[in-house]
Amino acid sequence: MTTPETTAAGTRPVDNDVVPLKHPGRIVAAVILLALAAWFVIGALTNSAYGWSTYLKYLLDKRIAEAALHTVALTVLAMAIGIVLGAVMAVLRMSPNPVMRGFSWFYLWIFRGTPVYVQLVFWGLLGAIYKTINVGFAEIDLTDALKNFFVLAFVGLGLNESAYMAEIVRAGLQSVPEGQTEASKALGMTWWQTMRRTVLPQAMRIIIPPTGNELISMLKTTSLVIAVPYAGEIYGRSTDIAYAMFEPVPMLLVAATWYLVITSVLMVGQHYLEKYYSRGSSRTLTSRQLAAVTDAEGVPPTNVKVVGPGTPGTTDIDNKENR
Known about the structure:
Blueprint: H1 24-45, H2 52-58, H3 62-93, H4 98-113, H5 116-124, H6 126-129, E1 132-134, E2 139-141, H7 149-174, H8 178-186, H9 191-221, H10 234-245, H11 248-277, E3 283-286, H12 287-297, E4 304-307, H13 316-321
Parallel strand pairs: 3-4
Antiparallel strand pairs: 1-2
């Protein structure tokens, strides 16, 4: 079918070629940003104060690598405590029992209202506060147990994190409509079956993104465990080496590089985990609807499934329903 070349009455006018709108301001801004980035990189590479030779020497040092393993262990153990205890506190916060609600509120008030550094200092002094515990029929000596600063470090971080995870879990559970729970009860599901099969799969789409952020934040918060004092993680170990050589800048760059690498790995894992739990949130559009949405938003949406004539995996019923 040919397009009419005239605009006489009764004929459709010739389609105009769409010319993209030019944005010279964006080009100028991009050039300025690239110039500033190049200026900073070149200046840093030629500045002897950064100590690049020392940086390259200690980047893969065995002591730093072992400290990275300790950092990951602190992060995983602290987040495990935070997630489990946070879920318990979230359930208590939503309990109809006023005592349980009050206990949960007080717990969150204490751990969210005081700085994590102050809490870690307190955990480090716990051995001086509680030397023994009297349980009535026996007296337990805590001197040796409270000398393990690694345990005190991840317990202190985990208890602090649980206060934040409690609010994240509570927000995720409350985002699921009440009708979902009622429908599950009508089908004869128990409370645990309702949570496992109905509520949690839908709530995880809300819980996963902020939990991933908390995990990355926890990785960097481990640098504060020097307050316990525990110096076996990345920042503590690199600081010890820097003090011995009197070169703090290159060792800080070494620590920053290791944090960036581990954080990047965690971000990749978070991306695929979010993608897994967002499977049920995709929209079904026809090719015409997809084109309209793309024109309106400027970019094609990512959470869509295209249906229509000729699209694999679609039926005539699907096509009729989406017309």
